[in-house]
Write a structure and sequence with these properties.
By secondary structure, the chain is of the alpha+beta class. The chain folds into two domains: 97 residues, no CATH class; 91 residues, no CATH class. The chain is 22% helix and 32% strand. β3, α3 and β4 form a beta-alpha-beta unit. α2 runs parallel beside α3. It is globular, with a radius of gyration of 18 Å.
């Protein structure tokens, strides 16, 4: 999930801003539902409220680092959903645990793209954390696997090279999700903000497309 104000809200409301939480289906871009964030609160409880109104059984929900919360993950799992969530500095202990893990021998999937004068290599490694030896490490409710995403960009003309590493956790076990299947879910986290404003909508959620800014809960079939 990633949040942003509604376009023009500062001119239309006393509070000066409005933030929406929307659930968007990965494959179709369909907005499945949305709720407005209370002006005295934030997106975290709004996501939990929205998840209670949706049929999430056997679905995979991708959310960004803001929502790496035990209660949010417990809410999603309680609705029958699995999750993929990015881990950043707001969960420092979990992030440090992930950085300390050795992914060298973990199953991985790699892609290489060439274009626009650059070469981009992406590698997704997935580590099984379901064993008792990982109890207490990278602890988040329901987590079963850790993902390490490495993106390397090389511009041959200038010789410039950059490497970016990010981490995620998922409730999906190795029997249901390997590195090849996890990779697309990781790349969509944080990108559904725009999708919610340009996609098709169900009759009950047509107003979601009227905004350019929304917080999105991206959903995929399991």
């Amino acid at each position: 999930m990633d949040g942003k104000d509604l376009r023009g809200a500062s001119k239309q409301t006393v509070e000066g801003r409005r933030v929406m939480v929307a659930a968007v289906e990965h494959k179709t871009g369909l907005v499945l539902g949305q709720v407005e964030v209370d002006s005295k609160s934030n997106e975290i409880p709004a996501v939990r409220e929205l998840s209670q109104s949706l049929d999430l059984a056997s679905r995979i929900v991708t959310v960004d680092a803001l929502h790496a919360q035990h209660e949010t993950m417990r809410c999603l799992r309680g609705r029958g959903a699995d999750y993929v969530v990015t881990i950043k500095d707001n969960q420092q202990t979990i992030l440090e645990d992930l950085r300390a893990m050795d992914f060298t021998d973990a199953p991985s999937h790699e892609t290489v793209d060439k274009g626009h004068g650059r070469i981009e290599r992406r590698r997704c490694a997935v580590k099984d954390l379901s064993g008792p030896e990982w109890d207490g490490y990278a602890h988040l409710h329901g987590r079963r696997q850790a993902l390490r995403i490495e993106r390397e960009r090389h511009i041959p003309k200038t010789g410039r090279r950059s490497v970016e590493v990010s981490y995620s956790l998922t409730s999906l076990g190795p029997d249901r999700a390997g590195p090849r299947s996890c990779w697309p879910w990781c790349t969509t986290i944080g990108t559904s903000r725009t999708a919610s404003t340009t996609c098709a909508t169900s009759p009950a959620t047509k107003t979601a497309a009227a905004s350019t800014c929304a917080t999105c809960l991206a959903i995929s079939p399991a």
